[in-house]
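User: Fold this; C-alpha cells only.

Assistant: Input:
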Amino acid sequence: MRLLPVKKVADLDDEGELGQAWLVDGIWGEAAVGILGGEPKCCKTITSQELAVATASGRPFLGRFAVKKPGRVLIYAAEDASWMVKQRLTAIAKARGVAIADLDIQLITTERLRLDDDGDLEALDATVAALKPRLLILDPFVRLHRIDENSSAEVARVLDGLRLMQRRHGVAILVVHHSKKNSGSARAGQALRGSSEFHAWGDSMLYMRRRGDELTLTVEQRAAAGIPGIPLSLTVVGDELSLQIQAPMPEPETPVPKATPAARIELALAESSSMTLSALRDACGVRTATLCDTLKELVAAGRVERLDSGYALAHQ
C-alpha cells in the first residue's frame, strides 16, 4: 500500500517572517501562484512584464519593491507577436536602467498552449523542469484553454495542474486573467471573470483598475498583509516605457489585533455597576462558553466579583 509523505511540523523548513518568503517584497511570494486581474486596457500585460524585468534584473519592481529572489523568467504571451513582446520588454528594461540582452527572460514561442490539454501541460512542465525559471508568466488565461470558465470543476482541474507544477519545481506562477465587465464596485477578488476558484487558488493576487485617468494596483496575499491601492501612471519617454508610482502611496495594511475576551469583559464592566451574564454576552460578542470560562478566571484572579445582580469589577 502506498503511503503519503509526511514530516513532523517542527522539522518543516522556515519560510521567513509571518510564514511568507518573497520573490518581490510585498508583491509576490516566492514560489507563489496567483492571478494578475483587471478589465481590458488596464495595463495588465505591461504590469506582468514590469514584474518580469524586475525579477530577471533584480531591480526594484515599479522602482520601489525589492526583488528578494532574482532569476530567470519564462513567459508565454498568447496574444502578442514575439517582436511586440521584445519591443515592450526592451523599453521597460531601458526605463529601469538595464539592457534586455543582459536579462535572462525566455519566451515560449509555440503557437498553441492549452492548459486543459494533458500533452501541452506535460510539455510545459518539462520545459519548466529543464529551464528552472524563478517566475512563469502565462498571459492571458482566456487563450490557454477551451473549458467553461464558470465551471468550478473544470477551472479547478486546470489550476490544480499549475499548482502541482509549482510544488514540483518551486516556480512562482502568474496567470493574467480578465475581470468581469463593469465590476468596479465589486471586491477585487470577486470581480474576476468566471468561477470563484480563481480567487481561492491564488497565494499572491494583483488587481489592476482604471477609473477615468486613474490607474491603481491592489495587492492581496494569502499569508501576509496586502496593499490597498497603489496609484500608477503609464509613462512613455522616447523608447522607454514604464509604470510609475504616483505619490502619495498607501501604506501596507496592518491587521488590528482583536481585544481578548477578558479585556472586552473588563471594558464592558467598567461602564456599568454590574451586568448580567446575558448582558455581558451581548456587549462583548463572545460565545457563552467562552464568557463563562473567562469570568471564572477573572473572578479567581480577583479582577471581577460575582454579585446577586450579576458581575462587576472588583474593588482594587
